[in-house]
C-alpha cells in the first residue's frame, strides 16, 4: 500500500507545533456545517492552525443527506470568502477545500448520478460513517466508490464504537480499499480512553496513512495546543511526515 508518511529524522518536530504542516481534515469554513459558525470564528481557527505550524489547510465541510446538504457551490463560495478574509487579516495560509462525505443514501445517489465529488489531492475523497451503525452494505459502497474512479479515505476509524470489540476490523477496512485517517486528538484521550486505545493501535500497526485535526471549534484548538498533547503527537508520529500533500 502507498505510504503517505515519510520517515525523515531531520524533520523532528519543533516545540509548540504539530508534527505535520498540512492539515487535511477540518471544519473551518464559516456557517456551512457544525464547525465555525461565522467568519470571525473561522479566522480564529485558521490563525490557531497557523500558529501550530500548519501552512496548508484543506477544509472538509460535512456533506450529510439529512443534515448538511453542502454542494460544490456552497463550499466554494465559503472557501472564496474565507480566502479573502484571510488575506485581509494577514494570515498566510494556503487554503483549499474538499468535503467529508457521510456514506449515506444521499452520497450513493451522487455517485450513481455521476455527480462530480469534491476530492482532495487527485482522486482521494474523505468519507465518514454513522456513529450509530455500520452500514450492512459497506463492501458494496466501497466497491462503487473505487470503480467510479475515487480513492476513499475513512475519517477517524478509531471513533466508531462498533469497531472497538475487534481491532482486526481496521485491517478489513484497509483490505476493502480504505485509507485510514486518525484524528490527532484521539491519541490524547480527548474522545475517551477506548478511542485513544484504538487510535494508538492503528498507529502502532502502521495502518494509518493520514492524520488530521478534525478541528471544529476553539475547544479543539485549545486541546491541540496543550504542551502535553503536542508531546504525544510527536512521540506517536516519531518523525514521520505526511507526504501525500507535501
Ligand atoms: Fe470531520
Global Rg: 17 Å
**How much helical structure, as a percent, in the residues?**
25-40%
Strand content: 15-25%
Task: Give the overall form.
Answer: globular
The tally of beta strands, per DSSP, is 11
CATH homologous superfamily caption: Metal-dependent hydrolases
For the terminal residues, how far apart are their CA atoms?
Answer: 18 Å
* Corresponding CATH architecture: Alpha-Beta Barrel
Q: What strand line-up does the widest sheet have?
A: 4-6-7-8-9-10
Please give the count of helices: 8
Q: Which structural class do you get from the secondary structure elements?
A: alpha/beta
CATH class term:
Alpha Beta
Instruction: Provide the CATH topology.
Output: TIM Barrel
Strand and helix order = EEHEEHEEHEHEHEHEHHE
